[in-house]
From TrEMBL, chain A:
It comes from Pseudaminobacter soli (ex Zhang et al. 2022). This is Branched-chain amino acid ABC transporter permease. Its main location: membrane. The lineage of its organism: Bacteria, Pseudomonadati, Pseudomonadota, Alphaproteobacteria, Hyphomicrobiales. It holds the Pfam family BPD_transp_2. The keyword Glycoprotein does not apply.
From TrEMBL, chain B:
This is ABC transporter substrate-binding protein. Residues 1-29 form the signal peptide. It comes from the Bacteria. The lineage of its organism: Bacteria, Pseudomonadati, Pseudomonadota, Alphaproteobacteria, Hyphomicrobiales. It comes from Pseudaminobacter soli. The keyword Kinase does not apply. Keywords: Amino-acid transport, Signal, Transport. It holds the Pfam family Peripla_BP_6.
């Protein structure tokens, strides 16, 4: 394989990785702060994609409007399920919340299927030709997707590390009881977390629908790679989730040049295994001492 | 108190119904033939299922108007399989175990036929479909399953014929990873290579991905002049988007259910103009088609498509086979007679009434269907004519009809 193919595959992997970094970051934040693996993120993405379709067919064809409304609607959905389901389970074992999140995933998908049916939808956007740099092709669409994802990720990182609110979130992540004792309102942090999770999944879903096609299983199919890259990056580490997802994306795309394309996911998991053999805590994970 | 009266009333009514049923049975007419229609009314097949059910109802009315098959009127029980194997299993269990149907017609997706085949075969119930999965030919050990649409193996061979005829030299293949589509692509390759050609690249891709760009780039790096897409609508939509955006110029060929009018509407004329699709088309010059066409338009106000036409033929063929096998025939006894009434030699007939009259005179018949001449092979497969379609101004248009020797 020559370098042009490898570069193209790597670019493709980076774009996919950046896009999926949005839900991966949501998963890792929930795991860090609310302490359970949130299995409904995939279906929140699906919800975002369908909202974008709805916006396009009834309000305006503008992609920016579709993205904003999809994020807002999904944030609202996430908040609704926090208030209805996850808040009352927060004192129980994480397993209850995990099982409940699977239930939420099914409920969201079934409601979508009930109204929208099984057939596919396409987010309308003009098709543009790629810029061709002697064989290395860059799609303008991919640039928009990547830029949107980078902006959203940067905003969250800024909030986490440079604002008082981010400090409070990290404090709750470290020790919720201690944070509450120091006067941090845990519920406020949880509400913000739900909004971020929803907005990121909604945006990720809309971008995914923009790149691919919108089907009821859109998000659910992505849960496995998202969870794998969260583990790869180090559970609970936001930087880790983003880097893990990008590494996962690149290895999957480059792998498909060398083995049959049907085995590309397998090779991505081989990379996951190798990293975890060398660093069992993941790329950016911390070793937690158990007392 | 009222509860007790209700119960008594119910008992009386039930007794009356039972007595009525006994009386009508003893009144002479043979028992009705219970026919199951398993259609994809909702789901991915929802574009075709409702039309197929209408066609089945038209055929049932035609059979009943002619006095029934072997004197037995057809009674129809319809279920929706939702284009999903799990829903189909529940539906077919209801048809077979509760409605006690003696044949199932109208199955659209291979996944449904593959899931329901063990149930219908175990119950000795013939099932007729428009599927293309080649494995149906080997799985059906009782010769109860009949396919009214070309197998995907044959469609793959037609791709090669069309590509050759149009002067392409360097095809690359992208195939969806399931048994049916890989078989279609493999058959394209073997037919193409048998004709002296070479395949630039052969890529089997994993379904349900959000991007196929790397697979596509790999195929395009071999400079193909045509992409053979053994695919379904969701994946082909993504592939075509990425193909167009890549700026690479070549032609495309796919089965008719893949690059559909809906895909063309979503992606625009610049993409669709490069595409050729292959589907079975009805035998539009036959008497059977003309009669069915008239009945279908009168009933629905729409033009019948291939799957509806095939569904109509299923009922007529079944009725003719029952007539030949006799009123008491069951399952395999009926299916054993299907080739007798459809395959050459025999007097060609175009309607149920014609066939019925000929069979009563003791003649051999060869039903020339509305969907195809219906010559069933050993595995219950048939090869209707192929339509080669293109998109003109982004509208699907038939360009040419091609027949293969079965």
């Amino acid at each position: 394989m020559d370098w042009i193919n490898i570069t193209n595959a790597a670019i493709n992997g980076i774009v996919l990785g950046l896009l999926l970094a949005l839900p991966a970051l949501a998963v890792t934040l929930v795991f860090g702060i609310a302490r359970f693996p949130h299995a409904a993120v995939g279906d929140y993405m699906t919800f975002g994609a369908y909202t974008a379709i709805l916006v396009q067919s009834f309000m305006s064809a503008s992609l920016v409007a579709a993205a904003l409304i999809a994020s807002a609607a999904t944030a609202f959905l996430s908040l609704f399920f926090y208030a209805w389901v996850f808040r009352s389970l927060s004192q129980r074992s994480p397993v209850s919340s995990l099982i409940a999140s699977i239930g939420v995933a099914f409920a969201v998908r079934s409601v979508i299927t009930f109204f929208a049916g099984q057939s596919q939808y396409v987010i309308e956007a003009p098709l543009v030709r790629a810029w061709n740099f002697s064989g290395v092709r860059i799609l303008p669409t991919d640039l928009y997707v990547a830029a949107t994802a980078v902006l959203a990720l940067a905003a969250v990182f800024f909030m986490l590390h440079f604002t008082a609110f981010g400090r409070r979130m990290r404090a709750v992540a470290d020790n919720p009881e201690l944070a509450a004792a120091s006067g941090i309102r845990v519920r406020e942090v949880m509400i913000t977390l739900s909004v971020i999770v929803g907005a990121f999944c909604g945006l990720g879903g809309m971008l995914m629908g923009f790149k691919a096609v919108v089907l009821p299983e859109l998000g659910w199919e992505l849960i496995l790679p998202i969870f794998a890259s969260v583990i790869l990056g180090g559970i609970g580490s936001p930087v880790g989730a983003v880097c893990g997802m990008i590494l996962f994306g690149i290895s999957q795309e480059i792998a498909s040049l060398y083995v049959g394309a049907s085995y590309k996911l397998v090779l991505a998991f081989v990379v996951l295994l190798l990293v975890l053999l060398i660093r069992p805590q993941g790329m950016f994970g911390k070793i937690i001492a158990v007392r | 108190m009222s509860y007790r009266i209700d119960r008594r009333q119910f008992a009386k009514l039930a007794a009356a119904v039972a007595a009525g049923a006994v009386l009508s049975n003893t009144a002479g007419a043979a028992e009705a033939f219970r026919l199951g229609a398993l259609n994809s009314i909702t789901g991915a097949g929802g574009a075709y299922g409702p039309g197929m059910l209408e066609a089945i109802q038209i055929a049932v009315a035609e059979v009943n108007a002619a006095g029934g098959a072997a004197g037995r009127q057809f009674e129809l029980f319809a279920e929706d399989d939702q284009t999903k194997p799990d829903a189909a299993v529940l539906a077919v269990k209801k048809l077979v175990e509760i409605n006690r149907v003696e044949a199932v017609v109208g199955i659209w997706p291979s996944s449904v036929q593959l899931a329901t085949l063990p149930i219908t075969n175990a119950a000795n119930v013939p099932s007729f479909n428009v599927c293309g999965a080649p494995e149906l030919e080997t799985l059906d050990d009782k010769d109860l399953v009949f396919q009214f649409y070309a197998s995907n193996k044959v469609i793959g061979a037609v791709f090669a014929e069309v590509a050759k005829k149009r002067g392409f030299k360097n095809p690359a293949v992208l195939a969806y990873n399931n048994a049916t589509m890989v078989a279609q692509a493999e058959n394209f390759r073997s037919t193409w290579e048998a004709g002296g050609g070479e395949v630039a690249d052969f890529i089997v891709y994993e379904p349900n991905q959000t991007s196929y760009r790397t697979e596509l780039d790999r195929a395009l790096s071999k400079n193909p002049d045509i992409l053979v897409l053994s695919s379904y609508t969701p994946d082909v939509t993504i592939i075509l988007k990425e193909w167009y955006q890549s700026g690479y110029d070549c032609k495309l060929i796919s089965p008719g259910w893949s690059i559909t009018q809906a895909v063309a509407d979503a992606l625009g004329p610049e993409v669709s103009a490069q595409a050729t699709t292959i589907s079975n088309v009805p035998a539009s010059s036959t008497e059977a088609y003309k009669a069915f066409h008239e009945a279908f338009v009168a009933r629905t106000g729409r033009q019948p498509e291939m799957f509806a036409t095939a569904a109509y033929d299923m009922v007529i063929v079944l009725a003719l086979a029952i007539e030949l096998a006799g009123a008491s025939a069951k399952g395999t006894e009926i299916s054993a007679k299907i080739r007798n009434v459809t395959n050459a030699p025999g007097n060609k007939v175009s309607t149920f009434a014609e066939g019925l009259a000929a069979l009563k005179r003791g003649e051999e018949i060869d039903y020339e269907g509305a969907s195809s001449p219906l010559e069933f092979g050993e595995a219950g497969q048939t090869t209707p004519a192929f339509g080669i379609f293109g998109f003109e101004d982004n509208k699907l248009a038939l360009q040419e009809v091609m027949t293969l020797k079965s």
